[in-house]
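job 3f2a | input accepted
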Amino acid sequence: MKNVFFCTICISLLALISSCSQGNDKTENTQGTANNVVWAELVESKTVLLKPEGWDEEYWNSVNKNVDHQKIFNTIVDAVLSGKQKAFNILTDQVLTIDEVKEVLNNVQLVESGKAASKKINADDLSMIRMREKWSFNEKEFRLDKHVTRIDLLLKKLDETGVYIGDKALFYVNLNE
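job 3f2a | predicted structure (177 res):
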């Protein structure tokens, strides 16, 4: 009887110690370590997809390696159109229905003045990707971790002669909701 009682206590203590150490590992994985310092709760960054006028082609390619416009555009649009991800109006933050997204993609006015032309949007029309991020810095490893929470798709805005004059917001998607 003493042996059964002693074995039960030992097994219970081992289970308790094991569950406590698993809980600590989970906290470290989701919240980071004591070495992480939040540098920014919210910061906006932009990735320009059009080579700025006057930039050398070699330099442009050295800072924008293998940026796959098609993959970025298709991944986001396919997720929205399949219902896996919600698209939001950039100005109102209202959720767009799948039909509204289809209408935006099929009938966007890219010309601001003069004759307005509608066209179907594709990856080549992207001019910029804007992201909202949280930045955490790991002091021990001297590493910056960026957690992207939102991606905005922006399009080339053209004048009546087809010259790029700026960007026009398409919609945004939230990540990790």
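job 3f2a | The CA atoms of residues 110 and 123 lie 14 Å apart.
job 3f2a | closed
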